[in-house]
Fold:
Amino acid sequence: MGGGFLAKYLCEHPSAEPFAKLIIVAGSYDDENEDTLGGFKLSDVSKLSDYVNEIHLVYSNDDPYVKLTERDKYLRDLPNSIVHNFSGKGHFNTTEFPELLEIV
Structure:
């Protein structure tokens, strides 16, 4: 839930100086099927474009928790995001993720 939390926090607490990069990995937006999101549900994160120079969205097509429809909701608000789609990475519960290092 870190990606959704961070997106919500940055929208509600804008920085005086823009961040160079924001990387959201398997971030939930407002998944109606997920009761555990609670206060982390998002409705509009388009303000992030004002506070972040480069936004990356990282998702896997076989994530058992976060569906690609959540990615699409971020893209609706942040159409200039750089999308990284993976196959076979699940929810990125791994000790090695060299592709993330390349993004950083």
Remarks:
- The first strand starts at residue 19 and ends at 25.
- The domain at 2-103 is CATH 3.40.50.1820 (Rossmann fold).
